[in-house]
Design a protein that fits this description.
Number of domains: 3
Domain BRO1: 3-395
Coiled coil: 551-578
CATH architecture of the largest domain: Up-down Bundle
Number of strands: 4
Organism: Amphiprion percula
Distance between the termini: 19 Å
Number of helices: 21
CATH class of the largest domain: Mainly Alpha
Protein name: Programmed cell death 6-interacting protein
Keywords: Coiled coil
Structural class: mainly alpha
CATH topology of the largest domain: Butyryl-CoA Dehydrogenase, subunit A, domain 3
Order of helices and strands: EHHHEEHHHHHHHHHHHHHHHHHHE
Helix content: 55-70%
């Protein structure tokens, strides 16, 4: 009778994947087409989890395929979303597969905000279901034998993978069923059962007895190793140790039986009898101690018949000496099984729902690259704008070009008239005063959002600290203070931006107050503006002079230089490059991204030519401004100077400076208003949502941990302190093989018995 061990599935609580993942997709992918595609993929992922974990599964390969697809999708999606306790926080709750619980405390379970934990538990179910499917196979035909061997090896590989990765995936002590010791023992059990299936296949195919003996002896060795691993695992079912001990003896007996046939063929009749006697003793031990679990009647009859015949022939014919068992040659071993390597995708039908979404490593590199690019663009554009402001300031101080247009001394210079019309078209005083009024309100609202977000963190951290003080080391989750460090750093950066904005806002107000009177004058009708400008004696004699023509030519060249800068600014802002492909290629080739090296090299290639053009433009302006100042000195010496002329020129200078200040202040205020509107949106949608999401997840985790601690205390009412779990101790392994297990009551009379751990 063949008896095989299978493993129960873990059970998980329902988790809403749609809301947090959709929120991340909406915030990260504003493009309507790709956003819609990813949102649909999120819905499919949620359905996939429900199909894999939210309903009973048949012991069939089609059910295993569903779990494999979900596991493969978890592996594929892990690098594409920022799953962590302080970013995209999803809490998964799983029950211990072997803990049946009690009437008052329920079964043990663990809730963790870790995708690695979810992957580990899903892979456990892959192994468990594979063991159940293997145990259901009909071992009387080749197809069933091959399927059983395949699924046992898959189960062994999955349990072994968990053993190697569970501690790093969870970063905390796992439940007993997925502890390295437990899954390591389960992996050995599955491997032993796979080897036994190969033994059954070789027996069915009537292979050579030497081969069958080696296969059986290897299976016995595997069962012995598994028994040693399970001796101190009190979380497994009571049937496990007796079955493993029985299997160890049965496989040894089969190895001796087939090796005895080989000895008979070589006419070593004494060895034949010794091996059959040893085999008979082994099955007798099984029959006397483990008969409730495993039936060895057929095997015992076969061995006894062979032993009786061998003794009879030896007594009457051969008279060969029967050696001691310890003097017999060791039977060889042949391992035909190997734990299946867990290398996703495991499903033959897997298709990545988020195939087009780039990994987080690329997203993070793209974010840093975009910051570097923005800094490069801002530096070049800022340099050009500073040059323009410098040029305007120098010309305003020289009253140019108004001085050339004001040779009559009694009309509004054309440039001043154009400046006045420009201010009126932009909304005049009302527009700029409204902007100055709106900005502090935006800053105040953004500060309130920031304060609300940080208060959520503060309140949750206070609660966490109080519970940590109450439960001491039993409060085993990550301290909130450590978890919130990145968010607090981000919040400090936001607050620093707000503080600087307040300071800048005051600078803008002071500058506006300085030029307010002249801006008001520029907003008046033309006749009132003309009346407000002092008249002066005419200087018509300078009209058409060489120095005037030279100055006008130089001013025209300055205008061309400024226009060139405007064109350059547009070109610089329009530069694009598909850096994502570069990062993806680097990740595929090297397994990592050297963002700094790749970004700096590409930015240098993109902007070095523009930088040279900007510098050439600035040198041209500097040279030309020097020429303008020289020409203006000559022009000033030729002008007829008097008090009225000086007063008029001073007013015209102030009007020109007021216009330039208006344009700059208005532009800065509009940019700041837009920036802080957008920044406030990102604070609400990004920082505030991250804070609320992580606080919600931490509260859920807190409630689960509190419930778990209360259940633990209920289980041990007389022991206020927690005992160290058995799986955390490492007792010395026994020196020998498995020892007979105590008799247990378990009735089985079927041809194929399967126990669930």
């Amino acid at each position: 009778m063949a008896t095989f061990i299978s493993v129960p599935l873990k059970k998980s609580s329902e988790v809403d994947l749609v809301k947090p993942l959709s929120k991340f997709v909406t915030a990260s992918y504003p493009a309507a087409e790709e956003q819609g595609e990813y949102l649909r993929a999120v819905e499919e992922l949620n359905k996939l989890r429900k199909n894999a974990l939210g309903r009973p599964l048949d012991k069939h390969e089609s059910s295993l395929e569903i779990i494999l697809r979900y596991y493969d999708q978890l592996c594929a999606v892990e690098p594409k979303f920022p799953f962590s306790e302080n970013q995209l926080c999803l809490t998964f709750t799983w029950k211990d597969a072997f803990d049946k619980g009690s009437l008052f405390s329920g079964s043990a379970k663990l809730a963790l905000a870790s995708l690695g934990y979810e992957k580990t538990c899903v892979l456990f179910n892959v192994a468990a279901l594979a063991s159940q499917i293997a145990a259901e196979q009909n071992l009387d035909n080749d197809e069933g034998l091959k399927a059983a061997a395949k699924f046992y090896q898959l189960a062994s590989g999955a349990f072994g993978h968990i053993k190697d990765t569970v501690l790093s995936a969870l970063n905390r002590e796992p439940t007993g069923d997925i502890s390295p010791e437990t899954v390591g023992a389960l992996s050995l059990i599955m491997l032993a059962q796979a080897q036994e299936v190969f033994f059954l296949k070789a027996t069915s195919d009537k292979m050579k007895d030497a081969v069958i003996a080696k296969l059986a002896n290897q299976a016995a060795d595997f069962y012995g190793d598994a028994f040693k691993q399970c001796q101190y695992k009190d979380n497994l079912s009571k049937e496990v140790l007796p079955v493993l001990a029985a299997k160890h003896c049965i496989m040894q007996a089969n190895a001796e039986l087939h090796q005895s046939i080989l000895a008979k063929q070589k006419k070593r009749f004494g060895e034949e009898i010794a091996r059959l006697q040893h085999a008979a003793e082994l099955v007798k031990t099984v029959a006397s101690r483990y008969d409730e679990y495993v039936s060895v009647k057929d095997l015992s009859d076969k061995i006894n018949r062979a032993l009786t015949a061998a003794k009879k022939d030896n007594d009457f014919i051969y008279h060969d000496r029967v050696p001691e068992v310890k003097d017999l040659d060791h039977i060889g071993k042949a391992a035909l099984v190997k734990a299946t390597a867990i290398t996703p995708p495991l499903s033959q039908k897997f298709t990545d729902l988020f195939e087009k979404m780039v990994p987080m490593a690329v997203q993070q590199s793209m974010s840093i690259y975009n910051q570097r690019k923005a800094e490069t663009v801002n530096r070049l554009v800022g340099t050009m704008r500073e040059a323009t402001n410098l040029c305007n300031g120098v010309l305003a101080s020289l009253n140019l070009p108004a001085a050339l247009e004001d040779l009559s001394g009694d009309s509004i210079p054309q440039s001043i008239a154009e400046k006045a019309r420009s201010i009126v078209q932009q909304g005049g005083l009302q527009s700029i005063e409204q902007l100055i009024k709106d900005l502090p309100e935006l800053l105040t609202r953004n500060r309130e959002i920031l304060d609300e977000s940080l208060k959520m963190l503060d309140d949750e951290e206070t609660t966490d600290n109080e519970l940590r003080t109450k439960f001491n080391q039993r409060w085993s989750r990550t301290p909130s203070g450590d978890l919130y460090k990145p968010l607090r750093t981000e919040g400090a950066n936001f607050r620093n931006i707000l503080d600087k904005a307040v300071q800048a806002d005051q600078v803008v107000k002071d500058r506006y107050n300085t030029h307010c009177d002249m801006i008001t004058l520029l907003c008046k009708p033309e006749n009132e503006l003309n009346a407000a400008i002092p008249s002066a004696n005419p200087t018509r004699t300078l009209q058409g002079s060489e120095v005037v023509n030279v100055l006008r030519s130089q001013l025209a060249q300055l205008d061309e230089i400024k226009k060139e800068r405007e064109t350059l600014e547009g070109e610089i802002k329009a530069v694009t490059f598909d850096m994502c492909t570069t990062f993806l290629t680097a990740l595929a080739q090297d397994g990592a991204i050297n963002e700094e090296q790749l970004s700096l090299a590409q930015l240098d290639q993109l902007y070095s030519a523009y930088n040279q053009r900007v510098q050439a433009n600035l040198r041209s302006q500097e040279e030309l401004l020097g020429q303008v100042q020289t020409s203006h000195q000559e022009f000033s010496s030729l002008k007829q100077s008097n008090t009225e002329a000086n007063q008029r020129e001073e007013v015209l200078k102030k009007l020109a400076a007021a216009h330039d200040s208006y344009v700059e202040i208005s532009s800065n205020l509009r940019e700041e208003t837009f920036h802080f509107c957008l920044w406030g949106f990102f604070v609400r949608q990004g920082f505030q949502n991250k804070c609320s999401d992580i606080v919600f997840a931490r509260k859920t985790e807190r409630d689960e941990l509190l419930k778990y601690l209360q259940q633990s205390i209920a289980r041990e009412p007389s022991a206020p302190s927690f005992n160290v779990p058995a799986y955390q101790s490492t007792p010395a392994a026994p020196a020998g093989g498995p020892t007979p297990a105590p008799r247990s009551v378990f009735v089985s009379s079927q041809t194929l018995n399967t126990w669930t751990l």
